[in-house]
């Protein structure tokens, strides 16, 4: 009986820790910031692509 109680306690503690890990992300950014980073990245890639194409056409 004692062993069963100890196992249940440990299982309960592990489940509680798991829930805390799932519901508290360590490094989460708000959605608008993710969108802004993606937008700026794509914009920079487009500018670089246009620059490379215009450079190749000028040569």
Automatic annotation (TrEMBL):
Annotated transmembrane regions: 32-56
The protein's name in its UniProt record: Uncharacterized protein
Highest rank taxon of the organism: Bacteria
Keywords recorded for this protein, A-Z: Membrane, Transmembrane, Transmembrane helix
